[in-house]
Amino acid sequence: MTDHYDALETRDPAQREAALFGRLPEMLRKAMAAPAYANLLRGTDPASITSREALAGLPVLRKSELPALHKAAPPFGGFVADRPGSFARLFTSPGPIFEPEGRQADPWRGARALFAAGFREGDVVLNTFSYHLTPGGFIFDASARALGCAVIPAGPGNTEQQFELIEAYRPVGYSGTPDFLKILLDAAATAGRDVSSIKRALVSGAAFPKSLQEEMKSRGVEAYQAFGTADLGLIAFETAAREGMTVNEDLILEIVKPGTGDPVAPGDVGEIVVTSLDPLHPWIRLALGDLTAALPGASRCGRTNMRIKGWMGRADQTTKVKGMFVRPEQIAEIGRRHPELGRLRLVVTRAGEADAMTLRAECASAADALQSEVAATLRAVTKLGGTVELVGTGSLPNDGKVIVDER
Fold this sequence. Notes:
4-stranded mixed beta sheet; single chain; 11 helices; 9-stranded mixed beta sheet
């Protein structure tokens, strides 16, 4: 058993940098074949963009802008040159944002992350990410199969049926949110079901604090976390060194001052901007709205790519709850559906070891019926459950914040 997925992971950093920026001009040419990129990058000579300094001079494309862009020019906002039928699968994420899946092997680049978490060819993997419309389930499914694993496409929920699958197939690996892994282990202990075959996990989509990581380890599951998006797939992942997250190959990751495209000083916290070298659907300087900082030095695991501290909050107010993005536009939609409400503020916290959200809504006269109606609208709009607190008019701060992440 080798320690690394392939030799690319242990290249000299200068060799990797030269390879990435040697391929970038061709990716720019492919991107600019799409009308939206042709407009965004008008006047750019792809042949001249061969360094980080040159790349930093290009405009950023903010992920928060994609819903409006996709609505104006469906389905992909003009950022994809090929027709939708040329892809393998077509997805949607909250916003809505529309994402295509390429036909190549491991289109979401997740096999490396699974390998780093201890998954190997021949393993059986229980995949509990959703397969319904959003790409999460398929990201981890395709990545595991590219590694040579067999996948149980379980999706989330329905623990009783999950137990039947686990006891029959004896999966050694789990992929899904850390919250659902805890739910599964707790429910199995209560029901006396045998899930002891699960020894390792790759989790994403929700906070994974050290306390929960240690709890999983005490229960026999060595769990690692990965950072990714529905647009780009797996961006960075933990390794056995447990020193931040290693950036995936075939990506150029920049950390910029929030609201700008300017690189931060080494070690400073800033917004993640990613350029992908995917010829079917290149992303050029996609600003994710997530904050992180680079770690100095090389990882003890032997991988030589850039390392980041992991997710450190949001540069904008969009946040991720139980693996799903919740956007300010969605909170505004709740207000439009309930004009009797004043200011709204969604507060995201942790309850036990799970994400929780509370919508605080101003109104002149609180009523149980209104509270229930708003709760139903919250679920309908965000696809997530949460509690609603009706508060007096003028009691919420007038600071423009509609989503506050207190985790």
